[in-house]
Amino acid sequence: MMLGFSWLAGCKPTAGMKASELPKEWFEINGFLKIAPDGQVTIMSPNPEIGQNVKTSMPMLVAEELDIDWKQVVVEQAPLNTSIFKRQLAGGSQSIRASWQSLRMAGATARQMLREAAAQAWQVPLSEVTAKQGVLQHVASGKKASYGEMASAAAKLEVPKEVQLKNSQDFTIIGTSKKNVDGPKIVTGKPLYGLDIYKEGMLIAMIVHPPAFGMKFKSMDATSAKQMPGIVDVFTFKTYEEGYSKSAFDNTAFNELVVVVGKSTWEVMNAKKAVRVEWEPISDSTEEMDLFGRKMTVRTPAGLESSETHQAKMAEMGSMPGKVVRRDGNPEEVFANAARILERNYSAPFLAHNTMEPMNFFANVTADKAELVGPIQTPEFLEKSAAARLGLPLEKVDIQMTRMGGGFGRRLYGHFLVEAAVISQRMKAPVKLVYTREDDMTFGTYRPSYYATYRAALDANNRLIGFHVRAGGVPESPLAANRFPAGAIDHYLAEEWTIESNITVGAFRAPRSNFIAAAEQSFLDELAEAMGKDPITLRLELLERAKKNPVGENNDYDAARYAGVLELVREKSGWDKGIVPQGRGVAAYFCHNSYVANVVDLEVKEGQPIVHKVYCAVDCGIVVNPDAAINLSEGGLVDGIGHALYSSLTFKDGVPQQRNFDQYRLIRHGEAPRSIEVHFVKNDTDPTGLGEPPFPPVFGAVANALYKATGKRYYHQPFFPAIG
Amino acid sequence: MAIFKLNVNGKSREVDVDPSTPLLWVLRDHLQLVGTKYGCGIAQCGACTVHLDGYAARSCQTPVSSVGKQAVTTIEGLSEEGDHPVQQAWLEHDVPQCGYCQAGQIMSAVALLKAIPNPSDEQIESIMSGNICRCGTYTRIKAAIKSAAEKSK
Question: d(Cα A36, Cα A29) in Å, to the nearest integer?
Answer without folding.
Answer: 10
